[in-house]
V-type proton ATPase subunit C
Amino acid sequence: MASTEYWLISAPGDKTCQQTWEKLNNVAAVQNQLSVNHKFHLPDLKVGTLDQLVGLSDDLAKLDTYVEAVTRKMASYLGEVLEDQRDKLPENLLANQMDLATYLTKFQWEMAKFPIKQSLRGIVDAINNQVTQIEHDLKSKSSNYNNLKSNLANMERKQTGSLLTRNLGEVVKKEDFVQNSEYLVTLLVVVPKMYYPDWQSKYEHLSDMVVPRSSRMIFEDHDHGLFTVTLFSKVVDEYKLHARENKFVVREFTYNEEELTAGKNELSKLINDKKRHFCFICWIHVKAIRVFVESVLRYGLPVNFQAILVHPHKKSMKRLRDTLNQLYAHLDSSATGGAGDTVDIPGLGFNTSEYYPYVYFKINTDMIGDHRP
């Protein structure tokens, strides 16, 4: 199985950005087969001032963590909704009708959703607001889903067990009840087997206004029988009282299976919820803005760098890291000590234990496992 880890990196343009791309691809893919690489296309984003970029850098680090967390929550929630079909989760996690890896490797900035004529701060705030709304909706839907799941579980529990507690919707039919009557009503009564003779002799006399010969046994388990009896609705309370005195239990019964079926349909609608697709799209746009901001802060103006999405082969990660460190060692001598060195660099919004001579962000497209940033 291919690795789900990608490295979004950037390096300053040589004479041209194309040369930067060719140099990396030649060393990492052509000569050594350490990775598969893709150009990561960025639009002409507005730079703003240096102070604004430093402030954005810190905010973007927090937003990146937040959007990834919401994206993973969305995936986890979808896995719950899929239940027995959880193995189909990857094919249900899509972005613009593409699987997540394809969306990432073929990334194109979505101009309609995130217009680049606005400032970077404007785009970042818009993403934050949209993801906050998605998270709010997710909490609400998750709560509704859990309630519904609980109702369904209760219903399933009641499909078996004693006639005193089980769901009677599974054992009765429409024709067991008197239909469309203003005055008459059919009750369902649970009678212990030992009291069957008592029931037959007494049910017509437990109150006035009982329809003669209206009782019929419609279901039986190990200990009880379920009987119908039809009477005038105005004597129901009196009938229940006298039935209880004789150890006959009148079940409160309302046929609401349609309600639960409608609930199941709601769940299938959630699987097609477009917002879950949008969450991943937001996350990759945050990564794109981060690589832009850090590249300008690191390499300076005018904007001249190449962003590259590197997909390391699983067993080659350490060699690839060493190769990249050698390739870009001239950019920053303090970083060649490797990932173990901790460097305090103000304004660079990433974990300094992962500081390299080139701009670097990790992306893991596996939404099922635990990949905390």
About this structure: The beta strands are 5-12, 35-39, 94-95, 98-99, 184-192, 216-220, 224-232, 249-251, 305-312, 359-364. The radius of gyration is 33 Å. The chain has a mean pLDDT of 86. The first strand starts at residue 5 and ends at 12.
